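Marked as duplicate of an earlier ticket. Keeping the data here for the record.
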Amino acid sequence: MRLVRWCLLVGLLALVACGSRHQAQPTLPSGQKITINDQTLAEGGSDTVRFGHMHAGEVAVLPLLFANESTQPIVILGYDRTCGCTTLEYENQPLKSGEQRAANLRFDSAGSYGWQFKVVKIRLSGSREPHRLYVEADVE
């Protein structure tokens, strides 16, 4: 009987020790993917970002994921916007070919009602034309 208990104890300890070696997998950033490739650098590109239904005065943030699928590193140099109600939060560090980086797009609906359509023009290094984000929201 003592031998059985000892074997069970050793087995339980071995099981616990093995479980402690499990390492969590790194999580990738999430959000709507904005793909930049050689064609969008040469000709410009666009994506539509939808905030959906919002209440007047609400501030919403949508996560974006910039993916560099071009053959060169890119940097977000800055952005222009049609309204001060939109803000792009990003790192302006080089994004190597094949890499992805998270950013946030913020929309402040204060003073807005009805269907809203805004444009954010993102200036990228190595690009002749800006990448346009068409921003939509329905504010009640």
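See parent ticket for discussion. The longest helix spans residues 2-20.
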